[in-house]
Design brief:
Length: 88
């Protein structure tokens, strides 16, 4: 979206009064599918994904929280000994 807006902003400054809004196709690699205005397309996508994200965050807050941890090891030997002690 930022790139598309930058292209549009640059096209406004190159002397064309109306500017050229960037377009692309929505399909695979931009080669297939319908041709769309990229600024509008990505704005809609961001709004759609934001609402989905908020809904998932609400679901996660309602569900029971499960404990988790992130562990870093300094050597492979320590990793191996931790793995062995976990399954003994």
């Amino acid at each position: 979206l930022a790139h598309a807006e930058a292209v549009y902003s640059e096209s406004n400054q190159t002397g064309k009064p109306k500017g050229i809004r960037p377009t692309n196709r929505t399909g695979l690699l931009g080669l297939f599918g319908n041709k769309v205005d990229l600024i509008e397309y990505f704005t809609e996508k961001i709004n759609e994904l934001t609402s989905k994200l908020e809904a998932e965050q609400k679901v996660m807050l309602r569900e029971k929280q499960q404990g988790s941890a992130l562990v870093f090891f300094t050597s492979r030997v320590i990793v191996a000994s931790a793995a062995v002690s976990l399954y003994v």
